[in-house]
Amino acid sequence: MCEPPILDVNKEPGAEEVFKKIGEAYEVLSDDTKKTIYDKYGEAGLKGGMGGRGGPGVEFTNPFDLFESFFGGMGGMGGMGGMGGGGFGRASSRSRTQPGEDGRVELQLDFLEAVFGCSREIDVDRLNACEVCETSGVRPGTTPSTCPQCQGSGQVVSAMRTPLGTFQQVSYCPRCDGQGQTFTACDKCGGEGRVEEVKRISLKVPAGVDAGSRLRVRGEGNSGRRGGEAGDLYVNISIKDHPELRRDGMTIHSDVEISYVDAILGTQAKVTTVDGPVELKIPPGTQPGTTLLMARRGVPKLGSPTVRGDHMVHVRVRIPKSLSAEERKLVEELKELQSKTKVGPFRF
């Protein structure tokens, strides 16, 4: 069953009565008897109360006329979906300048390019302004003429009779595509005013961009129609993995593996960083899973490249699965010494 619309947006005097009449008009659609009366006798039959709940003296008019008077024309809603006239505006406005669409392109960076930024040249497929017709779409030497079907309005109007009244539907003129003019198309662009071309763009990638970052290049999207402003180009960033380094925002992570002897005695280990190889001091007695901090060796902050994150080094201690006879003898001697002194690196 078709329910009347519920519009609780106006508290002005008389609003309740107006919406009541709209609801009664909608009842025609849901009541077979009223629809039959309307089809047979028109509005006069309903005015006489023959439909029942409409009541004597209730005049059913185009409900969108009520909306029109109550809400001030409903602006660009086209008289509730294009019915009822008005609100559509002159379709010839399509002949005015129109901005170009935004473009999108994918760009994959090396790990260090994303960390420190870089300059790249990228080729972009885009619609550029036609130089022959200067984006008008009209063949040079010819002049547009008024569309004979819409008489220059860019619109065509069709009428439709329904139980709620006679509605007018306004749509773009199919002959001139709403421009109000017909013309001989430019040979190069076919009347579009734009041609598809490949343009090479110089792109500066800032330091600190991360996977999923999106760069905006103003004015490098598609050219506008009829001299309109060009759209923007959006560059979606992805980043290749590094064989040794991992990234978490501004923090770099990596692993270093040392022997159990070096973990006991301490050592110097060469660590790969974004700045290159760095010697890292491993203190004596380092336990497996220890994390050592290398301050300010991480990723620059996006927009503030002088601020940098840290590099976290995760220590992995390599325990041999087998020992030579001499190694076993030394470890056993160490164990015996530990049991006598009750002190040492393996005290628990």
From TrEMBL:
One of its GO terms (molecular function) is zinc ion binding. One of its GO terms (cellular component) is cytoplasm. Gene3D superfamilies: DnaJ domain (1.10.287.110), Heat shock protein DnaJ, cysteine-rich domain (2.10.230.10), Urease metallochaperone UreE, N-terminal domain (2.60.260.20). Residues 1-42 form the J domain. Residues 117-198 form the CR-type domain. A zinc finger (CR-type) spans 117-198. GO terms for biological process: protein refolding; response to heat. Keywords: Chaperone, Metal-binding, Repeat, Zinc, Zinc-finger. InterPro entries: DnaJ, DnaJ_C, DnaJ_domain, DnaJ_domain_CS, HSP40/DnaJ_pept-bd, HSP_DnaJ_Cys-rich_dom, HSP_DnaJ_Cys-rich_dom_sf, J_dom_sf. The keyword Repeat applies. This is CR-type domain-containing protein. It comes from Gonium pectorale (Green alga).
